[in-house]
Amino acid sequence: MADPYYDVIIVGAGPAGSYAAYELASSGHKVAVFEEKAAPGIDACCTGIISAECFDSLGLDTDVTLTQANSARFLSPSGKCLRVQTEKVQAHVADRASLDRALAAKAQSRGAEYFFSSPVSDLIPGKECVQAETRCSGTREVFAARALILANGCRTDLPWKLGLGRVKRFLVGAQAELETRDVTEIEVHFGRRVAPGSFAWLVPASQDRAYAGLLIGCDAGLHLQRLVDELYRCGRVADRHVQIKQKAVPLESPARSYGDRVLAIGDAAGQVKRTTGGGIYYGHLGARIAARVLDGGLNNDELSARRLSDYEKQWKAKMGKELSRGQLARRALNRLSDGQVERVFDVLGSNGTAQDMVESGDISFDWHSKLVLAALRFSSAYPWLRIRRLLSGEGGA
Predict the structure, then answer these.
(1) CATH number assigned to the domain covering 170-250
(2) Which residue from 48, 112, 219, 242 could staple onto 107, CB 3.0 to 4.6 Å apart?
(3) Could you tell me the residue ranges of all domains in the chain?
């Protein structure tokens, strides 16, 4: 049994974990990252679409980008099309495996050590350190660190073992990579048959490849297969037999994202867009805040829950209101009938209303719940007074 000592152990080598490792190692701390998979980004269920702002903030090279996007087509249940476009690039579609590898390489270049094929099976908190029990290449080992970051998703008992609580409310995301014809821009498909209470998407990855996905409460794989079948019947997909990946996406945060010597980031902290399930940008923001707070705690040897609670205060001040608005938007969307969705399309499609909303300058790719709630106003499916209060900031976070 080994007992090497680190300043920080990070569980999970996804984008959030690797960015936190990069920041902390850059600040001179000894960092170890443990990942159960054999390499970064393997079998990730993620479309990889991130905003231009997020792409720049992550410091990525363009070689991880598959395509860029500045337009989208929204399709109603009856097939009505609403198209919006901007002059500037709004998003990058990144190859998720390449993105994860690039962020891990950045962290390693600053001295962070990575242990792949090394699942963490147990965590043992103590007064002077936190111990992590792992199986490195099949051999049980115990590592110790002054502090710990959980960045290994939301379907694990590790946060509960450390007193942070559990995430109990989830949606299920499903995704498939397709060989396509005539998919040249992002498409968003609405309708109870396609994605009840939600929507599905097609995101081009190259001239003849695209990612299809959706995020719903149950039977996500079944509904995605129905969409693929329909696209196949329309001649837009070359093969209906595709591999569908699924993952749980948190709809809430745990009771706490901090404890004595421990912080949770990314999916583990519920830092996920409630509308789309996207977690790269919010996880990145959480990782950056966590690294900053933990750096101060390590330097001053103040790693108590009380000291590290500043992390939760800061990330909730940054994105808490957006998460609450996104939750409201998803609840309202879940109540819409297909007829109400058609009404929204009719109103937004008249006189260029949708394009005007996009060009208003008050909407962003990463902070889009305000746009979604504004659109839902036309459905009469949710009390507009409550939505207006949220938009004006009167409703709180």
Answers:
(1) 3.30.9.10
(2) 112
(3) 5-46+96-168+254-318, 170-250, 323-392
